[in-house]
Specification:
By secondary structure, the protein is an all-alpha fold. It contains five helices and no strands. Keywords: Membrane, Transmembrane, Transmembrane helix.
Length: 122
Amino acid sequence: MLHVLQTILDWSEIWALFIPAAALLYIKQPVIFKPVVLYIWLALVINKLIDVIWKFKTILPASLNSNNSLYNLHSVFTFFLFSSFFIYLKQPFILRIKKIIPFIFLFFVIINFTFYENFFYY
């Protein structure tokens, strides 16, 4: 029983996204939710790849053993897609700041992965 529970928890990055993905298949979303819908499908694909690499790490070649780049890519996609969602809401609340923040984030991501960390490995 514990093995089954552990397997379910191991793959939670994927199955947790099946709930909103299933809703997207049956319920048409307004255009304003386009970035969120895109996030759900991208997250499903990226998380599937992350878990497959993790589970088959011993069989894969050494150059494909790290899923760190996929985690980094997922984080960047998450930030930009949800930032665009909040920008497209057209709420007058701090609209200028909401438009500037993604550029600041991109600047720091470039600085971080150029000088301090490797995007692809730990």
